[in-house]
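Sample entry (138 residues):
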Amino acid sequence: MNKITIYTDGGSRGNPGPSAIGIVIKDAKGETVKTYGEKIGHGTNNEAEYKAIILALEKAKLLLGKKKAKEVEVHMKMDSELAFRQLTGVYKLKDEKIQKFFIEIHNLKTDFKKVTFEHVRREYNKEADAALNEALDK
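Predicted structure, serialized as tokens:
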């Protein structure tokens, strides 16, 4: 497994409100390797989107192992256009909390051969969204 694709979604009910994340990790063939959904406390949609990306990178590293992770290219897909544009340098980061998340993601990226980001429309992120909503409904 030299390349994986990770779909992430984060959301809150009430914004801010109860929050959760959804993560789907797929191998190079597009087969689902692991799906995660978990509550992450109280926060905004944007905070949840960033926490989903952070947790996805952490879980991918655990799944692969530290040594193997260094050989793997990670392609992250998210339906948050804001997070995507901030992570790719199109938008500036103004919120202090989000700046901290950005730095954490930047540091986590060094654990892999390469990490890229892509914005996808919501209908192409249904599995991560389902994991997120299942976690929120529990």
